[in-house]
Design a protein that fits this description.
The complex is a heterodimer of chains A (156) and B (262). Chain A starts with a helix and ends with a helix. Chain A is globular, with a radius of gyration of 15 Å. With 156 residues, chain A is mainly alpha-helical. Chain A is 79% helix and 0% strand. Chain A is built from 6 helices and no strands. The longest helix of chain B has 49 residues, at 45-93. Chain B is rod-shaped. The chains are: A mainly alpha (156), B alpha+beta (262).
Chain lengths: 156, 262
């Protein structure tokens, strides 16, 4: 949880740095998803992660949107979706590529839902959304590299 | 399976409920929600301070770079403008070279030893368009004027001749005088006021006082003051041309000038 709080602060740090220019990618959500899939999928543990991401989303909205609840709900939905896919995938199929695909898709859908809620002109909102999704790629690549490294160590 | 999903399902529903409640409250009670947001923002002030400072630093650096680039561009523009103006000024004040089409080149065919500083004869005459009074030049400086013309020759009276008189102007001060020789190789600028101080190297050119001579043809440079005479202070002038080694001269086609003036 402490790591997740630090990641939240890092995302907030970046958002302060580039405020009024772009939206930073949901590093907090991606990190939470990574932490979820890199450990055992016990129901109580998953439920705990659910509240972590919910609180993180609410706090993010309080800081940047002043309409708390939206990001919290999206984070919870993303976490449940990833859990659902990961839980139904055999252990042999839980590859780095699958994590990248699932996390990337969830991030994209979460961003799209927020994009639809933004009271911005379509063109400006689309530009912000596209940049956010593009910036997500390096963050996801780092998490995938860490996941792959841990997976290779576990197999050795 | 159902046992595994139950806590997740319950917590999901609870989270959904809380989320919707928060969303509803942010619209129903905007005041308290804003106050909460303000307090959360204030609590984050310290952790966000480095990012804020960094952003301001980057912005200041960007502004500085932009300002510097703008100043450099402006400086380059001004330098170019300055260069253009300087070139235009130099072209305006420099003696204008006389175009080759207005000049008639001639070779010196005779120079008597006893009239060495008085006159020379050249191999161009009336047949070539030379007229009496036309100025003769060498190396771009005036050395005399045509005094007699034959069909195929002409005599040029040199500026060092004591009978040579030519209105001239000091370019730097616009003082007028008369150029006159002394038959011994010296050139004098006569009738300059004694109280006037001229500096060595000041350029002397022809003045706009005659029909035959265009103004601005350089004659030479002031060298030193002479002896006061008749209430004036003559200035010794050094010709810009090599008067001791005159082999080729150019005669200005004066008829063209008069037509142009007409």
């Amino acid at each position: 949880m402490i790591i997740l709080a630090l990641v939240w602060l890092i995302q907030d740090f970046f958002q302060v740095f580039v405020t009024r220019i772009i939206l930073v990618p949901e590093i907090f959500l991606l990190a939470a998803l990574y932490m979820l899939v890199s450990g055992p999928l016990h129901p109580r543990r998953v439920a705990g992660w659910m509240w972590y991401v919910f609180c993180g989303g609410v706090l993010w909205d309080l800081r940047w949107a002043a309409v708390p609840g939206m990001s919290g709900l999206l984070n919870v939905a993303a976490l449940v979706a990833v859990y659902w896919i990961w839980d139904r995938t055999p252990a042999g199929g839980r590859s780095t590529a699958l994590f990248a695909a699932v996390a990337g898709t969830v991030h994209l859908l979460s961003g799209a839902a927020l994009y639809l809620a933004w009271p911005l002109p379509v063109q400006a909102a689309m530009r912000i959304f596209a940049i956010q999704q593009l910036l997500m790629i390096p963050a996801l690549a780092i998490l995938c590299a860490v996941y792959a490294f841990k997976a290779s160590k576990a197999h050795v | 399976m159902a046992g595994k999903l139950n806590p997740i399902l319950v917590n999901s529903l609870l989270a959904l409920l809380c989320g919707l409640l928060l969303l509803w409250s942010s619209f129903a009670f905007p005041g308290p929600v804003r106050m909460l947001a303000d307090k959360w923002g204030a609590a984050l002030y310290v952790p966000e301070l480095p990012a804020l400072e960094l952003r301001m630093l980057v912005q200041a650096t960007g502004n500085w770079v932009m300002e510097r680039k703008s100043l450099q561009d402006r400086n380059s523009e001004l330098e170019l403008e300055n260069l253009a103006l300087r070139t235009a000024l130099q072209q305006a004040i420099a003696p204008q070279p006389i175009e080759a089409g207005e000049m008639i080149g001639g070779r010196v065919t005779l120079r008597y030893p006893d009239a060495w500083w008085k006159e020379i004869r050249i191999d161009r005459g009336a047949r070539h368009g030379i007229r009496v009074g036309a100025p003769a030049l060498s190396d771009g400086f005036i050395i005399g004027k045509v005094v007699r013309v034959g069909d195929d020759y002409a005599w040029v009276e040199l500026v060092t001749s004591s009978s040579f008189l030519l209105a001239a102007v000091v370019d730097d001060t616009w003082d007028l005088g008369v150029i006159n020789g002394d038959d011994r190789g010296n050139i004098w600028l006569l009738y300059t006021p004694p109280e006037k101080k001229f500096e060595r190297g000041m350029i002397i050119s022809t003045a706009l006082v005659g029909d035959y001579l265009p103004p601005g043809i350089p004659i030479g440079k002031i060298w030193e003051e002479g002896e006061p005479r008749d209430g004036f202070m003559p200035q010794k002038v050094v010709s810009g041309a090599h008067l001791t080694q005159l082999y080729n001269v150019q005669i200005l086609r004066t008829g063209d000038i008069r037509r142009a003036e007409d």
